[in-house]
Specification:
The complex is a heterotrimer. Chain B is an alpha+beta fold. In chain B, 20% of the residues lie in helices and 7% in strands. Chain C folds into 2 domains: 92 residues, no CATH class; 163 residues, Roll (T-fold). Chain C has an 8-stranded antiparallel sheet with strand order 1-2-3-7-8-11-16-17, with helices on one face. A 3-stranded antiparallel sheet of chain C has the order 4-6-5, with no helix packed on it. A two-stranded antiparallel ribbon of chain C has the order 9-10. The chains are: A mainly beta, B alpha+beta, C alpha+beta. Chains A and B meet through strand 1, strand 2, strand 8, strand 9 and strand 10 of A and helix 1 of B.
């Protein structure tokens, strides 16, 4: 074929392209994943309760890597250093109260009118978990994980697995998972006998064994659904069955005079040895003119009689490509466990189970917070979040007797939470 | 208006029915990292841990968990 | 993914990738073999899609586009594609440019009459131009605000990559068709050509064209539904990145046959960019082509 004269320069484009295509397609383009970076997500949390109660510092790091195409491993390391004092369950009184430390040696005291706090807490927890997430065929994924958590007096081992499947043109994802955990508790001074009376130190202490355990089985079923081009939703049902030693070995109850309200004795608490939890969790994420609104609700119920509602709202205000502010409001409300008693009345028959742990009382809690995030580039971001947490319980319950009527019987927790995070590729 | 200007040796046009088209689908905003349900997973893990140790309820978003002596 | 055996006797498997319906036609073997082949092809197409899609936030394209002036080290495969894009930029004297995506911010080809202000075009054009970036394998450094987009070559590249993979795995004749970009390994087992229906890009005729392909590749540039009309003048969606304005007299669609899909696709694109001279350009290349005006 004749080439036109002015086209001679362009006539060679086909040959040049053929050459370029050859080097493009001849190359070893299969080498991928080998050089994928580690995605590191790290943060430090400071948690500090008012009035010198618990404070904690908790650094966390996760490292995730795509080891083969669409197949990920993740390692997570957590360190949790805790100090401070915690309500021991005893009610305030008009006298100085003296308590035997859990170790059975030494005492701690509470001034008149003060919530008794056990200041023994000083513990460091270290936890490591590993998970492996891989596709099974085109529409399914499988995640397997193991974890160990160790603190001075507590050890937990767990294993979990989860399967998910995309259906409906990948607009719906169904998932099911199970987790099994075995926990061992071995407190200093051994495990107190439930309902035993607290005795002064340096006497034979009422102790059962030095170590006890509990087993927890968790099941989780979830649906994730694309609801239009800018909204995604999630609905989970989870079931948890724990059995074994479910007491808190550091918690006691005051036994008070039915008329004066004066404290006579302290008993170690006694909880059932099994607990079944059910929860239904829904979350919606909606893209709103450049910002992201997240709303979540959880209904929770267990066979200890606790029913709770949790609402969690977040608004991610994307100021620009790099910066965002995210205000957050969380509201929580729970009913008391059936066997919760702020104290027991002397002379009355003991109930089958009893605990004065304020975490099992009726109360509401609110968290308000603000998070600021700054994106450095595609893979890195730092963030800071500050939140205030506050519990509000019943300070003056109807069944308070005598001097109890003039004292606050619910030791509410007020805390500040500060979290600094940094995410990067490595 | 329509004009097929050339025919090749390897290819010939015959009449027939249409079977291929382009149906654009884009993940669009749902692909944004801040629209992922697992976004802020570290925050969520901290929250689960804090509220597990301070409240009677746990679980929902993920496994009810535990693994610490804090409750 | 769906698999069926058509009356013509070969297997047809379908899946969706890169915003297009994708097909594998395999002439021979059993269903299990077809399933394996389709899975192989789909997996590779999805891999390429997720790696080079600009709609994702976790891939190399996003890393490059959000590097904000800092150098990005790219992997071997991305380097090869950047080399190829650079060659095409040079061969087309700047008409083909993978940094031209920024022009999308001002040009929306939705059939309306919204022609952007020349000032706005000029403003965006400051962030367009391959020669403004520095590419020295394996380091790409691009001024902040610029972006690369492999959309112009990604689908064709995927066909060729899948072709290569499958070619090593099956001896049955096969044809790949990713949204109209095709490549066949050879004629059917019977010696007949493959017959494929293609959409009429003008959408004016319900029963459009059907083509027959024996061996090699074919690709199309152009989409007649993407244009603007103002004062009776039609603006095609083929933009000249040198000026920021549509190419005058660009054909509605250009289809080219070549040994590989990426060559066919690039020849079709370069021809469209020639505007009124598209046919002359293609004649000089001595390739089979179809131009729809």
């Amino acid at each position: 074929m004749q080439l036109k004269r002015e086209g001679e320069g362009q006539g060679s484009i086909r040959q040049a392209l053929a050459l370029a295509a050859c080097s493009l397609l001849g190359g070893g383009a299969s080498a991928q994943a080998a050089d994928t970076p580690w995605e590191i997500d790290s943060a430090v949390l400071l948690y500090s309760e008012a009035d010198g109660r618990v404070s904690a510092i908790e650094p966390v790091a996760t490292a995730r890597k795509e080891i083969r195409e669409d197949e990920f491993v993740q390692l997570k390391v957590v360190v949790d250093a805790l100090t401070g004092a915690s309500p021991n369950g005893a009610t305030p009184s008009d006298e100085v109260q003296t308590f035997t430390r859990p170790s059975g040696t030494g005492v701690y005291t509470a001034d008149p009118g003060e919530t008794p706090l056990d200041d023994t807490f000083r513990d460091t927890r270290g936890a490591v978990s590993l998970s492996w997430d891989r596709p099974l065929g085109r529409l399914q994924r499988r995640t397997l994980g193991v974890g160990i958590s160790r603190e001075f007096d507590y050890t937990s081992l767990s294993a979990n697995g989860q399967l998910s499947r995309d259906i409906n043109h990948r607009n719906t994802t169904l998932s099911a998972g199970a987790s099994l955990a075995a926990d061992f508790i071995h407190p200093v001074g051994d495990i107190p006998t439930p309902y035993a009376v607290m005795v002064p130190p340096d006497q034979p202490q009422p102790r059962d064994t030095d170590i006890d355990d509990k087993l927890t089985l968790d099941l989780l079923f979830g649906v994730t659904q694309v609801l239009g081009h800018d909204t995604i939703g999630q609905l989970n049902y989870s079931f948890s069955l724990a059995s074994g030693y479910l007491n808190d070995p550091f918690k006691i109850l005051s036994v008070v005079d039915g008329v004066s309200g004066k404290t006579r004795d302290y008993l170690y608490e006694k909880r059932p040895d099994s607990r079944q939890k059910h929860s239904l969790y829904g979350e919606l994420k909606h893209f709103l003119g450049g910002d992201v609104v997240t709303a979540a609700y959880r209904f929770y119920s267990d066979d200890w009689g606790v029913i709770s509602h949790t609402v969690d709202l977040r608004y991610r205000w994307n100021l620009n490509r790099e910066n965002y502010l995210q205000p957050r409001l969380r509201w929580y409300s729970q009913t008391a466990a059936d066997f919760y008693h702020h104290s027991l009345i002397a002379g009355e028959p003991l109930p089958e189970y009893a605990s004065a742990d304020p975490r099992l009382a009726e109360y509401d809690a609110t968290t308000i917070g603000l998070k600021y995030g700054h994106r450095i580039d595609a893979g890195s971001e730092w963030s800071l979040r500050v939140e205030l947490y506050r519990q509000d319980g019943v300070d003056h319950p109807d069944d308070a007797v005598g001097l109890q009527r003039n004292l606050d019987l619910f030791p509410e927790t007020k805390a500040i939470i500060i979290q600094a995070g940094y995410r990067f590729r490595w | 208006m329509r004009r097929w200007t050339a025919l090749g040796l390897m290819l010939i046009v015959v009449s027939g029915c249409s079977s291929l088209g382009v149906k654009p689908w884009q993940r669009g905003v749902l692909a944004r990292p801040d629209m992922a349900l697992a976004a802020e997973s570290l925050d969520a893990a901290y929250d689960d841990h804090i509220y597990f140790s301070k409240e009677a309820s746990s679980g929902g978003r993920g496994f009810a968990g535990g693994g610490c002596g804090c409750n | 993914m769906e698999i069926r055996r058509v009356p013509a006797g070969h297997w047809v498997g379908r899946f969706a990738a890169m915003a297009s319906p994708c097909e594998l036609l395999l002439d021979g073997g059993d269903r299990a073999g077809m399933e394996r082949a389709l899975a192989r092809v789909a997996k590779e197409a999805w891999r390429i899609e997720s790696k080079f899609s600009r709609y994702r936030y976790d891939n190399i394209v996003h890393r490059i586009n959000s590097a904000r002036g800092r150098p990005t080290e790219v992997d071997e495969e991305t380097a090869l594609l950047l080399d190829f894009a650079e060659t095409c930029y040079r061969l087309s004297e700047g008409r083909f440019d993978i940094t031209s995506g920024a022009l999308r911010a001002v040009w929306r080809f939705d059939g309306s009459d919204r022609i952007p202000e020349p000032r706005a075009v000029a403003e965006v054009l400051r962030r367009v131009g391959w020669k403004k970036l520095s590419w020295r394998k394996p380091i790409l450094t691009m001024p902040d605000g610029m972006e690369v987009d492999f959309g112009g070559i990604g689908k064709e590249y995927a066909v060729d990559r899948c072709f290569k993979l499958l070619r090593a795995e099956t001896q049955w004749p096969f044809l790949l068709n990713f949204g109209g970009d095709l490549r066949a390994s050879g004629p059917r087992a019977s010696g007949e050509p493959w017959r494929i229906g293609v959409e009429d890009p003008t959408m004016q005729q319900p029963g459009a064209a059907r083509i027959e392909l024996r061996q090699g590749a074919m690709a199309t540039s152009g989409d007649s539904r993407r244009y603007l009309v103002r004062d009776g003048r039609r603006y095609s969606h083929i933009l000249d990145p040198r000026s920021g304005w549509p190419v005058a007299g660009a054909p509605r669609s250009v289809t080219v046959a070549a040994p590989t899909t990426i060559e066919a696709g690039m020849l079709a694109t370069l021809a469209s960019l020639q505007g009124e001279n598209a046919e002359d350009f293609l004649k000089r290349q001595q390739v089979p082509y179809w131009v729809l005006r």
